[in-house]
Amino acid sequence: MFDKQTYLNRREKLRKKLESGIVLMPGNVDVPMNYPKNPYHFRQDSSFLYFFGLDQQGLAGVMDIDNGGDYLFGDDVTLDDIIWMGPQPLLKDKAAKVGVENTAPFSALEEVVEEAKKKGRKIHFLPPYRAENKLLLEELTGIKPSEQGQKTSVELIKAVVELRSVKEDQEIAEIEKAMEVAYLMHTTAMKMAKPGVYERDIAGVVEGIAISKGGMLSFPLILTINGETLHNHYHGNKLEEGRLLLIDGGAENQMHYATDHTRTYPVGGKFSPIQKEIYEIVLDAQIKAIQAIKPEVPFRDIHMLAAQTITEGLQKVGLMKGDAKAAVEQGAHALFMPHGLGHMMGLDVHDMEDLGEDFVGYDEEIQRAKNFGTAFLRLGRRLKPGFVLTVEPGIYFIPALIEKWENEGKFTEFINYSKVKEYTGFGGIRIEDEVLVTKNGYRVLGKPIPKTVEDIEALMNGA
Q1: Statement: the pTM of the whole predicted model exceeds 0.85
Q2: Average pLDDT in the 233-237 region?
């Protein structure tokens, strides 16, 4: 955890952004895989980590907006627990490390919430995403799980998003620590991408690297020769010469800060002329998008710049035609890049997505688009210094989408369908890095993972 002043400052900043009431912030609990004593790997709630810092099960935090007190609720371990877990610090000692003086058994939380309800005080809570916390909220507040989404505190959501969006220097340092692991994950995978190797062979090594460095994967690994499926978690294919291997994977370090990089490699270490042609269009789009990052620029504009670059590149190889600007404005490029350019990063790989994408990525000025492709853009609002975000353009040849659009006669003035169908089986290419928005521009975070054709081929061939 960080020093206790960090958490004191964060809670005080949050308190100043809310008018009155109490903030109820449950942490997470163990979730069973198949029976209660066999749980999934524990992951604490990110907002609880941000404000209360304690990475253990069965805790809840309360902030009193009116009277200024902070409280932690949880139970100290019993002798039976110690037999299985070993000695554990007392809750009051853990709480002191994050600047909380008031502690009580978990059962006392119900009394505190009930007292606030009796006095008509506002009880602020964030949208729960786990069933256990939905049931806890129902028990404490009487609000049914089906109604909690509508009754969550928008005031609290906006305040948390505002604070967590701008990363502290120590947070950026943690992200870059995680990127040291990500570099090793991706370069190891690159060296393993040889004909005859199974996807699962590489996936196991990559996940093992994340675990061996004290953390874990920041999300389920995407590692596939069928990169046209955007979130492909199947790892049963054997690698063959001439295929592309797309790896979208990130590390989460011990402080739970995440990375998210994507690279696409030629199996066997050599891009074919066609693969190189498409790859360099994606790389050009990524570089131009990164170079456009600076404060106050709407990220939606940067997304459209990447789309324009991809469209112009595809025109040069005969896959698209007509007026490039009009093609992008009407959404014809989305046949090849049907997703958004990037998202916020931090304690979550899609930072704060549990609070609602539109609260994180949009605001009163810039609203989410409704057209296919751009509607999937998670971040559209103006950039601010301290934001950490991903830049991830791609080009994909998705047979079902191509067939559907051609049958509908969609965008025939922009898309050369006869040429596009020649790329059936090509797969997909995606390139992703994390970027910090600085006061005057940007900084790409972490040790650079090879991404030019020359650098990838050199590393894969032992240079």
Answers
A1: yes
A2: 97
